Amino acid sequence: MLVHARRKKRVQVQVPLTSLIDIVFLLLIYFLLTTNFMVEEGIKIKLPQAKAAASQTEEVITVYVDQQGRTFLGTKEVSLARLFDRLKEMIGRQENKLVVIRADRAVILNKAVKVMDIAKAAGAGRLCLATEKDF
User: Fold this and answer.
1) Which pTM does this prediction carry?
2) Which of 37, 75, 126, 129 could form a disulfide with 98 if both were Cys (CB 3.0 to 4.6 A apart)?
3) Are 45 and 67 in contact (CB under 8 A)?
C-alpha cells in the first residue's frame, strides 16, 4: 500500500496595510500643517527679473524703494536723511548684517544706488539687491 504524505498548507503572512496607510497619511497631514509658509509683507513693488535668483533664508533688514522713489523700512515710509539713523540703530554692532534693497523695476537706478550707499555707510556688512526669478 502506498502512503502519500500529506502536504501541509503554507501559511501566508499578510501585513495589515490599512493601518500603515493611515499612519502615512497622518504623518503627511502633520508635516503639511506644521510647515512654515513664508509670507512676505511689505510695499507692493515689481522686482526686476533675473534668471539666477537665489532665495535668502537668514534674517535680514529690508529696505523698499517704490515706483515713485519713496523709501520704506518695513512698512513705514522713511526719508533718506532719516534712513541712515534708522539703519544704524537696527544694525548696531553686527558687522556682518545683510541689508536687502527691494527696488521697483521702474525706479531710477540712481535712487536705488543712493539707498545702497546709505546702508553701507550705516554699517551694513553685506548688501543685496532683490530680484524675481525669471521663469
Assistant:
1) 0.56
2) 126
3) yes
